[in-house]
Specification:
This protein is of the alpha+beta class. Helix content is 37%, strand content 17%. Strands 1, 2, 3, 4, 5, 6, 7 and 8 form an 8-stranded mixed β-sheet that branches. Helix 2 (27-42) packs across helix 7 and helix 6 (212-221) packs across helix 7 (228-256). The radius of gyration is 22 Å and the shape is elongated. It starts with 11 loop residues before the first helix and ends with a strand.
């Protein structure tokens, strides 16, 4: 009963490159960089908005940028290399972001112009190459500190001219045997961009989210000396925020699958919880202890920060330590946003 999610689930459909060939570029890594940087600066206690597993673009026909339209000074320069700006978009879940696609007379070439609150504007070019590699060349000043998803080749050229970015991009494309898929047209941009973001987040979710090594690299780039103890505490706070997001998204997926009535009072009462081996062990221990209101766990993890004991094993100890009439009920196994079981504990 306690190991419903242990069988392997096929995530190929989430991780396979889009047939239309849109690459997300560095929007997600910029978002994650900001999340890590903010947590390092404010420490523990203040919550930040979680990084969503999916986003939704909203047409921004009035081009209401956060500052003076950053597309204007770039438009004429980009035009010299054959690019033009397309329909601007807002991101419903990310009010600090603005973007618009860049289109080129050569259908192999496409890109995006971003504005990010606190970071200003940057642009990038990207494509899916013939060998399957997703190539990105960006002028973003931050984001290179984060891990790249396998099958991607991202190059950062801060302050580079559009001509230099285009030259590097074409060289990278040639190294990977040219473009390999049908380009996206303007009508398909929104759908394919959102799908590409989901694909990148699916990889991050399934591997366990932000890593402590990534937090360390951002700390080194943020200026000043941040003690390793504070870096570790920032990392744990980020993992707690990740888990809170995953909890909500797994419950929402259970509702979508019909396993839970959206009006079920157990949702508001906080009776639902998730079990997943991809959750950081120390944070999972805290989460399960809180879910069951236990002062201590029935299974003592010798080193909860790095204990290799699966979370499912810890949960099994909790499950069988309870009287039969107090044991939780398994509701559904989900695979999105992570492989997890959704359970309901007794009231």
């Amino acid at each position: 009963m306690c190991g419903l999610f242990l069988s392997a689930l096929d995530l190929d459909s989430l991780l396979r490159p889009s047939q239309a060939g849109w690459a997300i570029g560095v929007l997600l890594v910029l978002l994650l960089f900001l999340s890590i940087w903010w947590r390092l600066k404010v420490g523990r206690g203040r919550r930040s908005a979680p990084t969503p597993s999916e986003i939704h673009l909203v047409p921004n026909p009035t081009a209401s940028w956060l500052t003076k339209n950053p597309a204007k000074p770039l438009a004429s320069v980009l035009a010299e290399t054959g690019f033009r700006t397309g329909q601007p978009y807002l991101v419903a879940e990310l009010p600090a972001f603005r973007l618009c696609p860049l289109w080129h007379q050569d259908p192999r070439l496409r890109g995006c112009l971003y504005e990010v609150k606190g970071l200003g504007a940057h642009f990038e070019l990207f494509a899916a190459a013939a060998d399957g590699t997703e190539i990105t060349v960006t002028t973003a000043k931050v984001g290179s500190q984060l891990d790249q998803r396998p099958g991607t080749d991202k190059t950062s050229l801060p302050d580079a001219t559009p001509a230099a970015v285009l030259e590097t991009f074409l060289r990278k494309l040639a190294e990977h045997h040219g473009a390999g898929v049908t380009p996206v047209d303007e009508a398909g941009f929104q759908q394919n961009f959102e799908a590409a973001y989901r694909r990148d987040m699916a990889w991050r979710n399934q591997r366990g989210g932000i890593t402590e090594a990534e937090v360390g690299r951002v700390a080194r780039e943020s200026g000043g000396e941040i003690p390793s103890s504070l870096q570790h505490e920032a990392f744990l706070e980020l993992k707690r925020e990740e888990l809170a997001r995953l909890h909500g998204e797994c419950v929402a997926e259970a509702v979508r699958l019909g396993a839970i009535d959206p009006a079920d009072p157990a949702i508001e009462a906080g009776l639902l919880f998730i079990v997943a081996d991809s959750i950081h062990p120390q944070v999972c221990s805290e989460y399960l202890r809180s879910a069951f209101r236990l002062p201590v766990l029935p299974f003592d993890r010798p080193d909860p920060a790095g204990d290799p004991t699966p979370n499912s094993t810890l949960f099994a100890h909790i499950f069988y330590s309870l009287a039969e009439d107090r044991r939780p009920q398994a509701l559904v196994r989900v695979q999105n946003p992570i492989r997890a079981e959704v359970w309901q504990r007794a009231a």
